[in-house]
Amino acid sequence: MKLTLLASRSDDVRPLIRDSVPWSPLDFVKGVSPEGDRAVHTAALLREINPADDLRFSCPLPDDLDVAVFAEHLPWDSEFFGYGVARLQGIIPLRAGGYRAEADYTPAVDALTALARSRKIRYLFAVVDSRDLPTSRALTARGFSLIETRLHFHISLGDYQHRRYRCRLATAADLPCLIALARAADNPFDRFNADPFIGKAEAARLIETWIRASLLHGFADATCIPDMPNPGALCTLKYHRDKAAAWNMSIGQLVLAMASSPRAGNGFVGVISESNYHLKEVGMDHVVFSTQITNRAAIRVGEHLGYKYGKGEYVFRLLL
């Protein structure tokens, strides 16, 4: 099969990618600009990356439809875990309105796995919108394992009201107690803990690294914690201000939320609610977050505070 690197034709495929599928990542948010959301997504897919990490290409399917395959080697993840890690961002028809639920993407997946093997990728994962039927079918047909099913929730902050809690933004001085919190928290359902290949120890080491990076290296824009010694919960936040103009609204995100125990009176509800208030105070119109379909504690907290379901996603992985 003839593959064409997308880096050589990004200007040609940009309008085709933008208009080929009948959804966009945040189309469940009322008031978001559909055109802007598609443009943000397309720009992320076609951004410049190191050629050594670039696994993006186009290829023909047997039914005379070309598709673009967006995948990349992840150097940070690869260094952290000690083996090649790559992510499939999506498989998109290169034709406006070209999405067909019955399409067969297995040739494109075969081409990707062959290319990944040639680049010494060991761990290939994909995050797939649950509406993307041909991608999910092709991945499972080629041996990818389902390791996480996610739900996305959202809330408008315009009239958000809830009782107030004593919370504050974390600082570097809080790092030791938040690392201890991460070690005490237990979520067996996220894609790292749920994957036996990664294992509990490596998953814990990763979460600790993320918390350290959130507080010290700008991985998060803010981290909300209960205002008490040894807080039992945390929530890291992203503002996404660089995308507000395109979206025609500002959308904040709850990124990493955890508690030492859902039933321990650790302030998890308060942390999420006060994260909403903080995002509202810094100018956010809306908030989104995702969690696993099996994480009943997080879903109940979200529903209690007024969050509504937005969409679903699947996370698959293949060992090469």
Write a structural description.
There is one protein chain. With 320 residues, this protein is of the alpha+beta class. Strands 1-2-3-4-5-12-6-11-10-9-8-7 form a twelve-stranded mixed sheet, sandwiched between helices. It has ten helices and twelve strands.
Q: Give me the number of helical elements.
A: 10
The span between the termini is 20 Å
Strand content: 25-35%
Strand segment count:
12
The general outline is globular
Parts with pLDDT < 50 across at least 5 consecutive residues = none
Mean pLDDT: 95
Q: Taking strands numbered 1, 2, ... along the chain, how are they ordered across the largest sheet? A: 1-2-3-4-5-12-6-11-10-9-8-7
Quick structural overview:
With 320 residues, this protein is an alpha+beta fold. The chain is built from 10 helices and 12 strands.
Q: Which terms would index this structure?
A:
33% helix; alpha+beta; twelve-stranded mixed β-sheet; 320 residues
